[in-house]
Structures are given as C-alpha cells and as structure tokens.
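One-letter codes give the sequence; backbone shape is given numerically. An example follows:

. . .
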Amino acid sequence: MRYVDANLGAPGRWMLAAGLIGFGLVGLYFQHSIDGLQPFDLQVPWVWLNSAILVLGGIGLAWNRVSAKAALVLWGLLTVLLFVHAPGLVAEPADPVRWVSAMEVLGLLAACMLVAAPARTDFRLAARIAVGLMLIVFGAVHWLYADAVAGMIPDWMPGRAIWPLFTGTANIAAGLAIASGVLARPASALVGAMFASWIVLVHAPRLLAAPGERSEWVAGALAFALTGVAWTVNGALHRSGGDLQSRSR
C-alpha cells in the first residue's frame, strides 16, 4: 500500500488537517459557509455536506495509512471551490480580498495534491509553483494594504506599521524561493513558522476577546492550515531544497 511517510510529512499534514477540521467544525457549529474558502453563502444541507467533508477529510489526512485517499477527496472539493472563485475574480479583478481567498484555496489544494500523489513529478512542480504564487500574492497585498494588515496586529507589539511590510517581504521572498527551488527548504520552514507564530500572537488573543465571533475562528483555522501548507511542501523537499522528492512506499 502506498502512503505518505509519517516520519517525514507528519508535521505539515497534521497542521493542515487541524486547519481543515477547524473549518468544518466552524461550518457545522455556526451553520454557515466558511468565509473566504467558499465565496458565497451555502444553504443547509450543503453547509453540512461541505463541513462534513472537511472534518472527515482532515481526520483522514492526519491518519497516515489513509492520508493519500483523504487528500484525494479534499483535492476534489478544493478544485471545485477554486473554480467557484473564478467568476468573482473575473468580475472584480482588482479586489484583493477575492485574490487572497482564491490563493488560500489554491495553496490548500496544492498541499493536498502533494499528499495525494507524492510520486508525480509534474504534480510536485505544480504544487511548488502554486504555493509560491500564493505567498507572492499574500506579500503584495501586505504591501499594498499595509494599514489594514497593521490593524490585525496586537497593540502591545512595537512597530505595528512596520510588521506588514516585513511579513509582506518575507512572503514574497519565500514564494520566489519555493517556486524556483532556490533555498526552498529553509524558506518553506521559516514561512510556516511565521504562520504558526500568528496562531499564538494574533489569533489566540482575538479569539479570547471575541469567542463568539465566527470570523475569528475561521482566521484561526486558516493559520493552522497555511502552516500546514508550508510545512507539507517542506516535508516533501530534498535536504538540498532543490526538488520535491517522493514520500511513498
């Protein structure tokens, strides 16, 4: 049986799984579409169906022996969601929120692609480029909308106006490294650590302050998922960082 090696890909898969499970649980609890992930409001029972797939798929993703099959199911769902984002991007191509949401879905799809088909060279290259593009778009948005991003940073952190520019630059640099394969391994590890730090520094305090706010739970789940995306790529890279290697046996 072929499956992803738990000793090599587990940290990324587990964080990715936690984020996807979080999305699903938020959808089930609030009976609402996942903001950003789904670009329009779904109605019951479609909310239940999408949320159940995310929860069950996430659980399967964390379980080594069925992770590839679970990733294949999630890959299919995320592909549909990515196509659903397309009309909005065409209608409002200058809307940064639409681009960020679409890139989030693309990154999640790419990570699931790596887990589902780790031996496919073309898929590995496509996943690396997709994650790189996602990070570059994130970085550009941080620079273009620095004031809005700064508003999400806790008051106690010094230099709030500088952090969006720093994180934007870090995203762009990591995106270029991952897409090109040059220093991709340290770049994917570090950008994943940056996403993980936001869980503690940004999302946990905001959740404690507003535990009933659906959008805060979605944002927290997204931080887990994006950490998982970066670390899934990292776990599939050679020690040299130059190419993605097979994690199947």
Notes: The CA atoms of residues 36 and 97 lie 8 Å apart. The radius of gyration is 17 Å. The chain is about 75% helix and 0% strand.
